[in-house]
Amino acid sequence: MERLAYVGAAIHDGARLHENRVLLVSDGVVEGIAEAVPEGYARRDLKGDTLCPGFVDLQVNGGGGVMFDGGADVGTLRTIAAAHRRTGTVGLLPTLITDRPEASAAAVETVARAVAEGVPGILGLHLEGPHLSQARKGAHDPGLIRPIGAADMEILLGAAARLPNLMLTVAAETVTPEQITRLDAAGVIVSLGHSDAGYDACRAAFAAGARCTTHLYNAMSGLGHREPGLVGATLDGAGAAGLIADAIHVHPAAIRIAMRARPEGLFLVTDAMAPVGSEIAEFTLNGRRILRRDGRLTLADGTLAGADLTMPRAIAVMTGEVGTDPGTAIAMATGRPAALLRDRRGAGRLVGAPLSRVVRLAADYSAAAPLSEAGAAISR
């Protein structure tokens, strides 16, 4: 039996940060956190970095130079998952944005095959649309947005039965509370986003079973003093909420306000597109050209189209520009998003995890790599 003791690093268990502790690993599996190195363990000194569970990202559109769309195959998912794994994300939901019904059906089939084949990192599927608000469409194709219908419900319920996790972003005004309740009962993680609905409609959707908000602040009704909108409904204590913490999609001051309102309810997503883990300067999205410039991804008219962001970079923004304590920021990338999943598949926890799902996060939080590959360069 090989017994290793990792010393010199802070240790995050998915919920909180432990200083001056030792991570114990037996035969490639995390055994626990100790105060000192027990007899019989070989020491490994990490010199000031942080060990934590691999990151969990519930909104990943692409990576490694490719996008997840209706034409994607299992090989595409392998490429995307591998690109994000190099930066410490070991569990993700490939995300299909608004598309045709046949593309959604194909995405379900592809993810089901990837799960059956054991593709590392694939935890299920996130369908971001097409049941969204035209008024808050963002980069989604307006010609493909539509209300949810009976046929859509059957596809979604069937997908929920086949996949370990299915997340669905809808606008509160395009679905009924009864539909949300039915989806929630089937295990679908219903999230509100790309919505122009008012506070009362959003609160009714949360009461019906919606569990979170997709990329808080972006593409939704804002906080007004007479109409608080979806932002207000979320900050007033309804559901969890994902944040794109790149200091582009949301100003650090707005993140600080959200953190004060919902200190336990926020988690990080990257909303990453094809460029992550690659050198490409542009790509296409539903036939439209997306440009990569100065950390931004935009349509030709300047509309933001996803993010050029990794999870370590999001943690660095949270700890640096936002001023969040490291323990909370890391929890927002590990245990918190994992807790939303119907089937965590071991994601977001440290004790009991194989070494391949433990991440070494650099001391400045801006880069990470799987601990089992610590000999390789830590990726940004």
UniProtKB/TrEMBL annotation:
Name of the protein this chain belongs to: N-acetylglucosamine 6-phosphate deacetylase
Organism domain of life: Bacteria
Gene3D superfamilies: Metal-dependent hydrolases (3.20.20.140), Urease, subunit C, domain 1 (2.30.40.10)
UniProt-listed Pfam families: Amidohydro_1 (PF01979)
UniProt-listed PANTHER family: N-ACETYLGLUCOSAMINE-6-PHOSPHATE DEACETYLASE (PTHR11113:SF14)
Record-level GO BP terms: N-acetylglucosamine catabolic process
Catalytic residues, chain numbering: 271
